[in-house]
Amino acid sequence: MATILSVSGSPSATSRTARLLRHLDDRLAAQGHEVIPLDVRNVPAEALLGADFRHPEIVRATALVERADGIVIGTPVYKAAYSGLLKSLLDLLPQYALAGKTVLPLATGGSTAHVLAIDYALRPVLNSMGPAHITPGWFTLDKDITVGDDGTLTVAPGTAEALAQVTDQFSLALGGRPTLLAATG
């Protein structure tokens, strides 16, 4: 199956965005894909802010992007745009880093007022990087993502079904097999 890089652009250590991505990673792995998580918040600030293309962590991130057949990009939405942390990483990747790749954009946020951030802020940047295909993305409200005291993630039923659908479309675009997993949170 395909190799998928799952990128979280959240700066938070307790990020709902990252937790949601890891939840979807499990679904993709169950469909036979190799999934590699990348939390941009773990890339040293001096590499991102110093625009150091030769920093070992930037070289590593670039190599992970090159290796991947598909990329899931998740970001919290701030002021109707994707995170500055994600922007910093995307700015340091080669201009056509996504050439030939299939991309799934996902976003989380506190208000439906930001639902268009995927299509009007993130998608144009991703498109400029030359992917073969950007599948339909999904915006998830923060209130639809619950993290239990034990760390378990629950996604509201309607949202869980929609996320399962966009994740499965992405998987199928990469040659994946249909999932037998329920769309539960």
TrEMBL record:
GO molecular function: FMN reductase (NADPH) activity
GO biological process: alkanesulfonate catabolic process
Keyword Mitochondrion: no
Alphabetical list of Pfam families matching this protein: FMN_red
Domain NADPH-dependent FMN reductase-like: 3-144
Highest taxon listed in the record's lineage: Bacteria
Keyword Disulfide bond appears in the UniProt entry: no
Keyword terms, alphabetized: Flavoprotein, FMN, Oxidoreductase
Signal peptide: none
The protein's Enzyme Commission number: 1.5.1.38
PANTHER family: FMN REDUCTASE (NADPH)
Entry protein name: FMN reductase
